[in-house]
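Incident review: delayed structure delivery

Summary: a single-chain prediction request sat in the queue longer than the usual turnaround. Root cause was a stuck worker, restarted by the on-call engineer. No data loss occurred. The affected request and its eventual output are reproduced below so the record is complete for anyone auditing the incident later.

Affected input:
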Amino acid sequence: MFGACLLNRPAVRAGRMCRRQLLAKTHGIGKAQFSTSIHPKTKFYVTQPIFYVNSEPHIGHFYTMVLSDTIKRFADLCGKTTKLSSGTDEHGQKIQQAADLANEPPLDFCTRYSDKFRSLAVAANTSATDFIRTTSDDHHTAVRKFWQRLVDGGFIYKGEHSGWYAVSDEAYYTSTQVEERVNDKGESGMYAIESGKRVEWVSEVNYKFRMSVFGERLLKWIEENPSVIYPAVRRNEVLGWLRMGLEDLSVSRPRNRQQWGISVPGDSDHTIYVWVDALINYLTVDGFAQSDVLPFFPPNVQVVGKDIVRFHAVYWPALLMAANLPLPRRILAHAHWTMGAQKMSKSIGNVADPFVDIERFGVDALRYFIVRNGGIADDGDYSNDEVIVRYKKDLVGQLANLAARCLSERLGADLNVFARIGREQLDHAEPGDIALRDMLVALPDRVHVLFEQGEFGRGLALVFDALAVANKHVTENEPWLMVKQTPVPERLQVVLFYSLEAVRLASIMLLPVMPIKAAHLLDHLDITDNERMWADARFGAGWQPLDRLCQSKPGVAQLFPKLE
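Output delivered after worker restart:
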């Protein structure tokens, strides 16, 4: 994982290009004709999907934000120079209709909702470096520049298009992708199988992208890079679509049907298809409007919901191929959230408000729950009760409890001898310590592998398993009895070392997920800022000799206050 001038010429004339000519144009895709900057191994670009501004932010948006932020912060810990893009998708027929319904000018409507998503990003304590709005001048310039490259390559033509269209999805579907259903009101109609949204038959003249010529190259790209789409269930979905064959893609809408959008260059009677417009945001945030030299592109990880895999794993790479731009290195398509095993819906009343729950549980506790319980392949089920269970069992019962027990002044943990003890324990440990020592030695690498895959929930499970073993270890060794002995046995500091070393390692590994609380824990352990990288998450690597005395700080028990 943690693998322009605008040409004001006619958009395109109707015409045909033979398949041989098109295949010749696509030959050597990936050897970009216009340069991107060299990608040192230290650069790491993560993208969020830009959020559609036709409704309030919900817990699913929070999950996407936090998951992508966790990936970015993990890359930071690994010493990468990072970029994380976020933003709002503000064009299309749905936005036009929603603004009309609200009796607002479209731009005012978009600004009002975009501000809500920006507020959620702040409330969620995300570290996005860019927040893009597709109504910005830079983005309009980038979209027109990209469109012109498609035109110059011969990949855009004008023709008649007919198909089943879902306004909710802003997408056309073929006859094999729709079915007749009866809705909750007893009304019969046609619906998209993939999204469940109602479709209507539409015939119109518009501009089309010759996507059909890229099917074989897309298949080869995915088959030669088996981890490029994760998890495997999404990869298999995409391979299935590709093996059925691709049709050319309608990439404009008549102005009389969709007014709110970016005009096709040279033809103001058409607006550019909202998904083409939206996908180009990943280029806009890297300076594509101003330059052909892109400091971070292509993305190392593109985080998307499973419902928009087709757009990111088929349309987007095909468009990039046509523009001779490098392809994303990985697409991480996460699952959705349900409540009570039902899809969240305002009409049912089972929608979770992230602003309310951040206020109730605290941002880091909610971030921990959403990453720990969130699904990558399978949907996660959200409930306040489950958040409380994670809070009390994991954060209070394992993490804070272990730290508070062993940092009590009564036990007198001497952090200044821990570096020596760590070295000694690596060479020789008592039989009762070996299991915990070996677990802590192996833990960072095991967690790193899972975090690299995007399986943060499974990685966190390993961290808290280790904390549970450390809690058991300290309970069995009873340091509160040792401290009463005269003289106090040297064994006391060894027992305290194992407990606090588990807390130190866990806190570093929790930094991407709970950046505030994990940092506070490291403060209590007197771990300096330059000892908080992933490379420092090694058994015995903490509290190294410095020109200072290490001194723990009191008050760790207050890190996770009692929930009201």
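Verification: The mean pLDDT is 89.
Action items: add queue-age alerting; document worker restart procedure.
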